Amino acid sequence: MNELTEKLIMDRLIKQALEEDIGNEDVTTNSVMPEYKRGRVKLICKHDGVICGLNVFERVFKLLDEHTIIEIFVKDGDEVKKGQRIAMVSGDIRVLLSGERVALNFLQRMSGIATYTRSVANLLKGCKTKLLDTRKTTPNMRVFEKYAVRCGGGNNHRYNLSDGVLLKDNHIGAAGGVKKAVEMARAYAPFVRKIEVEVENLEMCKEALEAGADIIMLDNMSVEDMKKAVEMIGGRALTECSGNVTLENVERVKKTGVDFVSSGALTHSAPILDLSLKELRPEEEV
Asked: For 73, which of 7, 43, 82, 181 is 20 to 30 Å away at the CA?
């Protein structure tokens, strides 16, 4: 996905999030701040981690009022520390209050994914295996979550179902076998699309290789079987390891020699990075 398309999608989803949260009005803010008044508030990090989503955080406030000023003191992908001041937001106090939760929800979620991804990627340092995400993302948050994976040092697998052919167990069952599934995919998909086949054992791996798969995904296989599969494939196809790969067990992949390891945990199991907007003050009191 190119940068322009990504920005357009992000804008649409940020607007939807604001509509969801504000509804007809922010009745609390309108009660205590019935008229325009300028103020500022600090963005503070409450735990060590990797910051990600600052452009989205900023866009939330800009969509509410383009005159909002956001001073950012770090950049996406930077490691941040507990107590560190990340940014200062200045503008209409009503905007600062009404946009706070949506801005933080995006930033905390994306930073949490980047932090978790960085921890997993660090464990793969020194080997050829590249870390990939999956499509196990929060509905309507994929564009944000896959960006966060990249900020954390991971790589993106397919963005969506039109990006490539991945023949999983149910596709293979529907087609009537590995060979038939690959043949049908070759006949239907554009020739520029790679064909990946998910296999669960060495026999299926041999079938996928003989059928001409471009990528063979070794799903939930033991380390020893993955080693044997990589040896069997011998560079004739790319290899990917998948299946319950987490921070706790990813190092075992180093022993297998696979080209890629994909982990759904990067997006579905990463805890948020705790961040907070604090010390909101009218500008005349600052």
From this structure: 7
Q: Are the CB atoms for 253 and 124 separated by under 8 Å?
A: yes
41: CATH: 3.90.1170.20
Task: Spot the catalytic one: 42, 46, 85, 136.
Answer: 136
In 3D space, the residue among 110, 115, 65 whose CA is nearest the CA of residue 89 turns out to be 65
Q: Residue 162: exposed, middle, or buried by beta-carbon count in 10 A (0-12, 13-18, 19+)? A: exposed
For the chain, how many residues are written?
286
Question: For this structure, is 101 an active site residue?
Answer: yes
Measured CA to CA in angstroms, residue 229 lies from 91, 199, 241, 245, 268 at distances of 59, 10, 11, 18, 28
Rounded CA gap, 110 and 152, in Å? Answer: 10
pLDDT in tens, 219-249: 999 999 999 999 999 999 999 999 999 999 9
Q: Does 126 share its domain with 104?
A: no
| Residue 72 structural domain | 3-120+271-285
Answer yes or no: 130 catalytic: no
Number of domains in the chain: 2
In the block, residue with structure tokens 């990797």: 50
Q: What's the pLDDT tens digit per position in 257-280?
A: 999 999 999 999 999 999 999 999
Note the pLDDT of residue 285. 62
Does the annotation mark 11 as catalytic? Answer: no
Q: How far is CA 178 from CA 115, 154, 164, 218, in A?
A: 38, 30, 17, 14
Catalytic site includes residue 142: no
- pTM to 2 decimals? 0.95
How far is it, in rounded angstroms, from Cα 262 to Cα 250?
Answer: 10
Instruction: For residue 136, indicate whether it is catalytic.
Output: yes
Catalytic residue among 15, 38, 85, 101: 101
118-171 residue pLDDT tens:
999 999 999 999 999 999 999 999 999 999 999 999 999 999 999 999 999 999
